[in-house]
Request: fold
Amino acid sequence: MIKIDSITKRYGNHTAIKNINLEIKKGEILGLLGPNGAGKSTTMNIITGYISATDGSVLVDGFDIFKNPIQAKKRIGYLPEIPPLYTDMTVEEYLNFVSRLKKVNKNERKEHIDTILESIKLTDVRKRLIKNLSKGYKQRVGLAQAIVGDPEILILDEPTVGLDPKQIIEIRDLISKLGKEHTIILSSHILSEISAICDRVVIINKGSIVAEGTPDELSHKLSYGTKIALRIKSSLNEAEEIIKGVSNINSVSNEGVKEPDTIDLIVEGKNDCDIREALFYAFSRANIPLLMIKPLNLTLEEIFLEVTNESKEESLNAGNVQ
Ligand code: ADP
Ligand code: MG
Reply:
């Protein structure tokens, strides 16, 4: 549906994105994840033809966004980082205005807008001035303008930024719903958001793609693999003694008591060694119940921090990780 072929964007000496290659299939919801300044908006602005690339090409349903902008843009609904709202218009006036811009057939305009107002849950505020709406509702109007004209593709730049948790869930649900009938590219610097709605995630950092896959694939690809969480019905000393007798153990860390009369440990095997079976038999020989053996995969959050080299503390302090 969209084919991005080695696009690069330079502002003077500064390279905002370099050599981005990406293909988005019809019906897919793709998440573009990256810290601020990574190049998400630049990439989206190029895909939508809003700015030009220094190098490379973008095909939208076979049409080149630079050579055939009218055909290509017709297929795209765009919600930029700052929605282009005319706040002195009512919701209805504004959507009418956008319909005219997007050349929606005059006879179909009213019905089209009614359908959109209904699906984005804006019917109740259709006569309200946009400037008097809450941020959550303004964002919905932004989404509504993107779907005017029934484009197949929706490009949404940080659609939930600045919203409160309840509004975030509402917008997220709306996007999931729209995802049933659209191809969507969605950007965010918030992991939970991306993993909640997207089929596939592309992590971008300093203008380049650094990781790609389904949320599950990413967490397996970069998994610790050999790290196992254990809950053992014994004392710490007893448990450590037994683990000492198991071969191929790299490290043991104490996670404390999470349940009365038990101890939680994280045990790491040496180079790819699966140590689960050995641990099971060792504890079973000692007649000590192992209440949990759980391999630890990296969470999307840990992957993000790893590939973007941000310190966990920094990111948590900035409130970026939810
Ligand atoms: P993101 O959306 O991921 O936060 P952007 O795409 O907005 O990142 O920005 C990527 C990089 O390009 C940043 O370093 C930013 O400062 C730079 N940049 C973006 N727009 C311009 C511009 N018009 N002129 C100069 N530099 C820009
Ligand atoms: Mg941005």
Observations:
- Residues 11, 14, 16, 34, 36-42 surround adenosine-5'-diphosphate (ligand 1) (CB under 6 Å).
- The chain has two domains: 2-220, 225-296.
- Confidence is low (pLDDT under 50) at residues 311-322.
